[in-house]
């Protein structure tokens, strides 16, 4: 008896599986027959017309982008000129900073005495001025070295930048006020 029930269940499953596996039973909507793809007919006049429209579109966009770029370049030039004038005015109004404390280095080669302040009549703005104007004073002593001045001790980094700006030096930070030989 058990075998008969098992056979009946299997027979029912197989019979129902054939119905489920048909595509029409699975799909909600019926399958429509496929349509043949129809191509447009393209003539020489439509090709030329389409090409001319594309060419005009590209030319218009190039003109628009060129005008926008010219406008941006003009704005940058105006901003650059304004910044240069502002920096020049501010650097001309900087008060004279005190020179750094000169650290004498005694060696066999230190026989020449150089002037402490450079006599540079050049009115060109020093590249250090922009940073020196915006620097915040900290009053933590630092040492710097310049080829013309030698070693110098400054109140802080801002003092060194102001000396570079006003006196036209090119001091760089060094770890010690005495050279290691």
From TrEMBL:
<feature type="signal peptide">
    <location>
        <begin position="1"/>
        <end position="19"/>
    </location>
</feature>
<dbReference type="InterPro" id="IPR036058">
    <property type="entry name" value="Kazal_dom_sf"/>
</dbReference>
<protein>
    <submittedName>
        <fullName>Uncharacterized protein LOC106116644</fullName>
    </submittedName>
</protein>
<keyword id="KW-0732">Signal</keyword>
